[in-house]
UniProtKB/TrEMBL annotation:
<keyword id="KW-0496">Mitochondrion</keyword>
<dbReference type="GO" id="GO:0005762">
    <property type="term" value="C:mitochondrial large ribosomal subunit"/>
</dbReference>
<dbReference type="GO" id="GO:0008173">
    <property type="term" value="F:RNA methyltransferase activity"/>
</dbReference>
<feature type="binding site">
    <location>
        <position position="357"/>
    </location>
    <ligand>
        <name>S-adenosyl-L-methionine</name>
    </ligand>
</feature>
<keyword id="KW-0489">Methyltransferase</keyword>
<dbReference type="Pfam" id="PF01189">
    <property type="entry name" value="Methyltr_RsmB-F"/>
</dbReference>
<dbReference type="InterPro" id="IPR049560">
    <property type="entry name" value="MeTrfase_RsmB-F_NOP2_cat"/>
</dbReference>
<feature type="active site" description="Nucleophile">
    <location>
        <position position="412"/>
    </location>
</feature>
<protein>
    <recommendedName>
        <fullName>NOL1/NOP2/Sun domain family member 4</fullName>
    </recommendedName>
</protein>
<keyword id="KW-0949">S-adenosyl-L-methionine</keyword>
<feature type="binding site">
    <location>
        <begin position="283"/>
        <end position="289"/>
    </location>
    <ligand>
        <name>S-adenosyl-L-methionine</name>
    </ligand>
</feature>
<dbReference type="GO" id="GO:0003723">
    <property type="term" value="F:RNA binding"/>
</dbReference>
<keyword id="KW-0808">Transferase</keyword>
<feature type="domain" description="SAM-dependent MTase RsmB/NOP-type">
    <location>
        <begin position="176"/>
        <end position="487"/>
    </location>
</feature>
<feature type="binding site">
    <location>
        <position position="306"/>
    </location>
    <ligand>
        <name>S-adenosyl-L-methionine</name>
    </ligand>
</feature>
<keyword id="KW-0809">Transit peptide</keyword>
<keyword id="KW-0698">rRNA processing</keyword>
Length: 488
């Protein structure tokens, strides 16, 4: 009797409990919310191409293997070659040579689509601002648009004159007081959407791509790019979905190789670190990109910084697993782990190279894993504030550069707001607040030899940076990165 009651209770729990199949079927998982959000936003940005990116994001992720120079290098290289992997430096050099034999690379063009996208977003913006804030706001927004259009900056003028005139433009503008001093209006601050969080989608409140740059800007095409001699990075060719062996312990006790998203190698490589450079990795944890920079043996000093203590601990653990005697002899490896908010680091003018790999919507993670997902209902404000956080980190990190020093900004998001939009905001901030001007280093030419192993977004669709997009035969990314150099 007792036994049958137990069975009945279990049955009822199963039938009516939270794990009942009908409940599970109807449950909206956080990763589904993330996908619904991306479907809404990215379809408008990428059109039909979003469908193939979407499939790739949901399928198995592709990795590259970085050989650990503190382990048994030859043995690991031989093992990877035996398994059919190719050295990325060889792939790059051969592709480059082939391009030259075919008459040289095609000079890429930018920014046609940007205009179309921005026009579309402008229309959206008008409609949505009216809906959210009423007619009064339309008056302000259109006023702001006209005033910024009527007074264009002449970039050939001396900097001091430009600053003087720029401040005059600011004074003449009708700035919407509800939007703070955001003259460029890239996005509505998260504080302005209080109470609307439940139904807000990404594209409902962000406004980006201000076509008018109210700062002087030079764009230079980078002509030279090299994978450093000390780095041994291996990949399988496009279409080959073999996976790498699990790293094993070497005779020195460290792991043989490190597996990372293939597109993640590009931001630190784009930095083009030179021997004896002082390097700052602003958002370093869990540490893949810092590890790559250490493996190149190029930096004189690398400060690997992260604002999260827990993640700094993960970073230290990673370094101990891959760098021989890291804990005992940090000075030998010239790598220092620091736990600081990169928005307030104040070593201004100190670094030759800075990497800013910011927290973002981590698109691939968000559509696949519920845990630690930024699309959780409780994290809406944090998510909507991301562009503010990203631009504050980038703005401060630009100030850490020596004149002539370079910075690479990167995200693993497809969102134009978090990518070109944040770069635009930071360029505007450093000019307006500190008179710092930057040159965009356009990497679209030197990235072309990577086309044989990764899928890149057409530079026409981007304003400042490059982007590796998810693609089934080469399922890396997404990874956006933009290189800039501080003018003297
Ligand atoms: C995308 S992850 C960085 C990944 C890392 N670069 C790598 O290659 O492994 C972003 C990191 O930024 C850190 N972060 C967030 N806000 C920060 C801030 N204000 N200053 C410094 N780090 C921050 C997070 O703790 C997180 O570890």
């Amino acid at each position: 009797m007792l036994k049958s009651r137990g069975i009945l209770q279990t049955f009822c729990r199963y039938k009516h409990g939270k794990n009942h199949w009908s409940r599970l079927e109807n449950k909206i998982y956080t990763k589904d919310r993330a996908m619904a959000n991306f479907d809404d936003f990215y379809k408008n940005v990428f059109g039909n191409r979003w469908n193939s990116m979407r499939v790739a994001l949901l399928c198995e992720h592709k990795y590259v293997a970085m050989i650990n120079n503190f382990g048994d290098v030859e043995k690991t290289a031989a093992m990877l070659e035996r398994d059919g992997a190719m050295n990325i430096r060889d792939v790059y050099n051969i592709s480059k040579k082939n391009q030259e034999l075919k008459g040289g690379p095609v000079i890429p063009k930018r920014a046609k689509i940007v205009k179309e996208v921005s026009e579309f977003i402008d229309q959206q913006k008008e409609i949505e601002i009216n809906e959210l804030y009423g007619e009064k706001e339309r008056y302000h927004t259109s006023d702001l648009k006209t005033s910024s259009k009527t007074k264009e900056i002449d970039y050939k003028k001396p900097l001091s004159k430009v600053i003087e005139e720029n401040s005059e433009i600011d004074c003449n503008r009708v700035v919407n007081p509800d939007f703070g001093n955001a003259g460029l209006q890239e996005f509505v601050p998260a504080t302005k959407i209080k109470g609307m969080e439940d139904w807000l989608l990404e594209s409902d409140h962000y406004q980006y791509y201000s076509n008018t740059a109210d700062f002087p800007l030079k764009i230079e095409m980078v002509q030279e790019f090299k994978v450093p001699e000390n780095l041994q990075l291996f990949t399988y060719e496009k279409g080959n979905i073999s996976s790498f062996r699990t790293p094993s312990r070497c005779s020195t006790g460290v792991f043989s190789h490190f597996l990372m998203d293939g597109a993640s190698i590009l931001p630190p490589l784009a930095l083009d670190i030179q021997p004896n450079d002082y390097v700052f990795d602003a958002c370093a944890a869990p540490g893949g990109k810092s590890l790559l920079m250490i493996q190149s043996h190029l930096p004189k000093v690398l400060i690997s910084n992260d604002s999260s203590l827990g993640r700094c601990n993960r970073l230290t653990k990673l370094m101990n697993q891959f760098i021989y005697e890291f804990g005992e002899n940090k000075s030998k490896h010239r790598c220092v782990i620091r736990n600081e908010d990169a928005r307030i680091t104040s070593e201004f003018g100190s670094y030759d190279k800075v990497l800013v790999d910011v927290p973002c919507t981590t698109d691939r993670h968000s559509v696949n894993v519920d845990d630690n997902n930024i699309f959780k209902t409780g994290r809406i404000k944090e998510r909507l504030r991301l562009p503010e956080l990203q631009s504050a980190i980038l703005t401060n990190c630009i100030k850490l550069l020596k004149p002539g020093g370079s910075i690479v900004y990167s995200t693993c998001s497809l969102s134009p707001v978090q990518n070109d939009g944040v770069v635009h905001m930071a360029l505007s901030n450093v000019f307006k607040d500190h008179g710092i001007t930057m040159t965009i280093n356009d990497l679209s030419l030197v990235m072309q030899p990577f086309f044989s192993i990764m899928k890149f977004e057409n530079p026409k669709g981007l304003k400042y940076g490059q982007m590796v997009i998810p693609f089934l035969p080469a399922n890396f990314g997404p990874m956006y990165f933009c290189k800039m150099t501080r003018n003297v």
